[in-house]
Amino acid sequence: MLLEALIFDVDGTLAETEEAHRQSFNEAFAAVGVDWSWDRELYRELLQVTGGKERLQHYIDAWKPRGGEMALARFAEIYEAKSARYAALVASGAAPARPGVRRLITEAHARGVRLAIATTSLRGSVDLVLHAMFGEQGPTWFAVIAAGDVVAHKKPAPDIYRFVLDRLGRHPGCCVAFEDSENGVKAARAAGLPVIAAPSYYLKGDDFSLATSVLSDLGEPDRPCRQIGGLRFDRDYVDIDGLNAWLSKQQQSQAEAPTT
User: Fold this and answer.
1) Which contacts (CB < 8 Å, 24+ apart) does range 53-56 have?
2) Out of 9, 159, 180, 206, which one is annotated catalytic?
3) How far apart are the C-alpha atoms of 149 and 78, rounded to whole Å?
4) Adjacent-strand bridge partners of 213
5) Beta bridge partners of 117
6) Which of 11, 127, 180, 217 is catalytic?
7) Is residue 244 over pLDDT 90?
8) Helices 182-190 & 159-168, crossing angle to 10 degrees?
9) Which pLDDT does position 254 carry in this prediction?
């Protein structure tokens, strides 16, 4: 089967957004008078919980910080302030695209390979990133944008990827998922998808052993990516022809694997 669709996570995969998310949470806390400040190490731990609202709820429940009851009472206000600050940061260029992402998506769009999004982020956050990367037409390039609470169970559950595959009407074997986290890889693999993992800044310590291939990023012709693990990608950067060859190699490897 030849490549028919690319399915992307957003935060940390399309762009390095997590630092902008962390800063916007801290600014929102200050704006509503909550004396909290998430440093990088704490935020790295909190990222094991998928979804911004879920992450904030988990922090209140598990860390039991001073002011938690007030924060719960003003939860919607805090998250609204966080979202506004995040939008301003992304618009200012604070969430740079990861190497190779713009090039690969532009090539896929030009060559008729379908594009989709599978993320726990809210739809508004997705559109912000796509607009920043591709202009106002960005979201229209994607046949399916599955975001936020479109499914009941978030990553590492496979629900979001199964939803996307159903909407695309494609077999998972002819699609490729792109992820930056262990939870994302688990979700995509459980849905039957081959996965290229490119760990983001905050999630380099995750376990990516389930990924089909692990690369430093998607690379550029003048800036090669680094092979980290899994099935070898035979080019120095990820493009459509390279993905077709990689997908064929992955399918051959599966066919030759011993059955139990």
Assistant:
1) 53/79, 54/120, 54/154, 56/25
2) 9
3) 19
4) 196, 230
5) 8, 145
6) 11
7) yes
8) 50
9) 76
Q: Is 241 a catalytic residue?
A: no
The model's pLDDT over 67-94, given as tens digits with 9 standing for 90+, comes to: 999 999 999 999 999 999 999 999 999 9
148-192: pLDDT as tens digits = 889 999 999 999 999 999 999 999 999 999 999 999 999 999 999
Flag whether the pTM goes above 0.85.
yes
**Which residues pair with residue 15 across a beta bridge?**
11, 97
Residues 144 and 126: beta-carbon distance below 8 Å: no
